[in-house]
């Protein structure tokens, strides 16, 4: 039985993906579930975080967003039984890859998959759904009537965040990085209040948002990264991103800025401006629930909420065509470079 693994380099900047033969899984441990994987979504691997967590191995398992059928359960498992259909996210320290026909996972990382949800939809939506719920409900406390700016809304994450914000009755503004992205956003229903095309570099995001909100500013901003320095000092991949000053400028009084920029630097004038507005900054860490065992109950509630909303048709994930396992290595190499817009899902 083959599984996909990655081998980090000495600098952790480049990694090599390879298939490895795995031994037959042992009898299921007390709180673990043996899972026949039906679909596994692909997401970039944060090698920097693994190094910070002192997780040092020769080979790391690949594939964490899984959906499948329970084959066997440990003696202390209380939530599942054989033949249950489940979905979940394997923890960072998982010994078994999700990109394998059979894997093993602790029951506290799984929830039941609704019958109406397909395997590929379940695996492809679970991670971005958790991120969107975390950003909108837990970090920014979204409520009806609020205005929300979602940067790069045509991404897999942005598409789900837009739909969930609409569901809560928010007024949504989004940015598009290309003509294709703009067309995708304009097809979303209910329609977005304003699509800001930043592909040519001539449109000012802050001015557009202030114009749309009558000069009041937006209540919530969810970025996709920001520029911290001048354009001359930033790498090319960041040139389409707004500057941190633009985000602060377009925030309204009492606004919430949810950032994915882990190295955000705010100078005293930036902090003073946020202070005058009574605004807050929160960090959207993909692994925040994974790193806090004390929050497992809340995490399971979020997983279930994501599946319930997916089943009810409140949102639909942005998925590419499913791929077979033998193409997973090549696909992961592309995903790791952040060159895919749609979510890649391996179907077994």
UniProtKB/TrEMBL annotation:
An annotated Gene Ontology molecular function: identical protein binding
GO cellular component: early endosome
InterPro entries listed in its UniProt record: ADH-like_N, CRYZL1, ER, GroES-like_sf, NAD(P)-bd_dom_sf
Domain Enoyl reductase (ER): 10-346
PANTHER family: QUINONE OXIDOREDUCTASE-LIKE PROTEIN 1
Name of the protein: Crystallin zeta like 1
């Amino acid at each position: 039985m083959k599984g996909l693994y990655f081998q980090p380099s000495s600098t952790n900047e480049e990694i090599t993906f390879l298939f490895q033969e795995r031994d037959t899984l042992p009898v299921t441990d007390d709180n673990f579930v043996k899972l026949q994987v039906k679909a596994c979504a692909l997401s970039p691997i944060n090698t920097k975080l693994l190094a910070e967590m002192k997780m040092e191995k020769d080979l790391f398992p690949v594939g964490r967003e899984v959906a499948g059928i329970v084959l066997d359960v440990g003696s202390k498992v209380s939530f599942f039984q054989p033949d249950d259909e489940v979905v979940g996210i394997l923890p960072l320290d998982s010994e078994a890859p999700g990109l394998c026909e059979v894997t093993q996972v602790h029951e506290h990382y799984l929830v039941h998959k609704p019958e109406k949800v397909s395997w590929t939809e379940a695996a492809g939506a679970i991670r971005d759904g958790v991120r969107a719920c975390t950003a909108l409900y837990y970090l920014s406390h979204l409520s009806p009537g609020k205005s929300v700016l979602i940067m790069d809304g045509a991404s897999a994450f942005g598409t789900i965040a837009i739909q969930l914000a609409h569901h809560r009755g928010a007024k949504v503004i989004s940015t598009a990085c290309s003509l294709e992205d703009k067309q995708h956003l304009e097809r979303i229903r209910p329609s977005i209040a304003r699509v800001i095309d930043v592909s040519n570099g001539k449109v000012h995001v802050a001015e557009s948002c202030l114009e749309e909100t009558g000069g009041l500013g937006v209540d919530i901003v969810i970025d996709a990264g920001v520029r911290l320095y001048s354009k001359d000092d930033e790498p090319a991949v960041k040139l389409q991103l707004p500057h941190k000053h633009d985000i602060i400028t377009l925030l309204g009084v009492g606004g919430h800025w949810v950032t994915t920029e882990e190295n955000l630097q705010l100078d005293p004038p930036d902090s003073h401006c946020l202070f005058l507005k009574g605004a807050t900054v929160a960090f959207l860490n993909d692994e925040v629930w994974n790193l806090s065992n004390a929050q497992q109950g809340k995490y399971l509630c979020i997983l279930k909420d994501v599946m319930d909303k997916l089943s009810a048709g409140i949102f639909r994930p942005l998925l590419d065509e499913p791929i077979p396992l033998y193409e997973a290595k090549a696909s992961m190499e592309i995903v790791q470079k952040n060159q895919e817009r749609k979510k890649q899902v391996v179907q077994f």
